[in-house]
Design a protein that fits this description.
By secondary structure, the chain is of the alpha/beta class. 41% of the residues lie in helices and 22% in strands. The strands form four sheets. A five-stranded mixed beta sheet has the order 10-9-11-8-12, with helices on both faces. It has a three-stranded parallel beta sheet with strand order 5-1-6. The chain has a three-stranded antiparallel beta sheet with strand order 2-3-4. α6 links the parallel β9 and β10. 39% of the residues are buried. The N terminus is likely disordered.
């Protein structure tokens, strides 16, 4: 019986060794070389964020600034015949999908933070996001300091709550599960302003006439493109492509396409 068990263990050990070697090779794969050979990049994107990445219910396709930017980056990096495909991510899934190599890069309203930089590598910032305020058109609120003594609305799990208290320590913050609930609360006058990233507020303002952004950006939190740790080639080529898109006017064209005409949204701080 003992000999039989030994014979069964031998092939199992060989299998485990092979699997470990294969995983090691997979994790050490040069992502840029892979996409260069395939002329294809798989991007992790948002499909629920107006202006950045939102599913068009009529066509079933994801549309937005980040989708257009991903297409432009793909062709700039790999050539005119290169293609891009998209995998829908959320704040909770984007890093695991990247770590599991289900996607090559994340382009999904991802703020560059020291904590995240421990898990992934970031490109240079591609969108100067930061906390801002959304208010009714007739609001007396002009900037974040006006929130002292007032009630402001935010979404649970965002950095906006801490950001508000840094600049308006006497503000009262009501937190909601999502932006739909928070916006409904603003319409019901349960607070004087809704706060989160300026780009996200721009999308909410576009969908809700009678509301505008005010006060500019009171806390900088730029978005970056994330890739797996150790993929320096991929980061370098993404950064180079971003520089080229800025120089040839593609970046500014895409910004104007998606953000021009949003009440209170300043293009000056975004255009390159």
């Amino acid at each position: 019986m003992k000999k039989a068990k030994r014979f069964l263990l031998i092939p199992l050990l060989f299998f485990l060794c092979f699997a470990l070697i294969a995983c090691g090779k997979r994790n050490n794969q040069n992502v840029y070389q892979k996409v260069k050979e395939s002329k294809h990049i798989i991007w992790g994107v948002r499909a629920d964020t107006r202006l950045f990445g939102l599913t068009n219910v009529k066509t079933g396709k994801i549309e937005g600034f980040e989708i257009d930017l991903a297409h432009a980056l793909t062709k700039q990096m790999l050539g005119k015949d290169a293609t891009a495909s998209f995998v829908t991510t959320t704040a909770n899934t984007r890093i695991p999908l990247l770590k599991n190599e289900n996607i090559d890069a994340v382009l999904a309203t991802m703020t560059i933070t020291p904590e995240r930089a421990k898990q992934v590598d970031f490109s240079k910032p591609y969108f100067p996001a930061g906390s801002s305020l959304l208010v009714p058109d007739n609001s007396k609120i002009k900037n974040v300091k006006d929130l002292n003594g007032e009630t402001v609305l935010a979404v649970k799990g965002t950095t906006a709550v801490d950001d508000v208290h840094k600049f308006a320590p006497k503000a009262r913050v009501l937190q909601y599960d999502d932006y739909g609930q928070a916006m409904s609360a603003l319409k019901a006058n349960q607070g004087v302003a809704l706060t989160t990233d300026n780009g996200l507020l721009a999308g909410i303002a576009q969908e809700n006439p009678g509301y505008k952004l005010v006060g500019g950006v009171y806390n900088n939190a730029p978005y970056g493109i994330a890739v797996n740790k150790g993929q320096k080639d991929m980061v370098d080529h993404i950064n180079k492509a971003l520089d080229q898109l800025e120089k040839n006017g593609t970046y500014d064209r895409l910004i104007k396409k998606w953000f021009a005409g949003i009440p209170g949204f300043s293009l000056k701080g975004v255009l390159k």
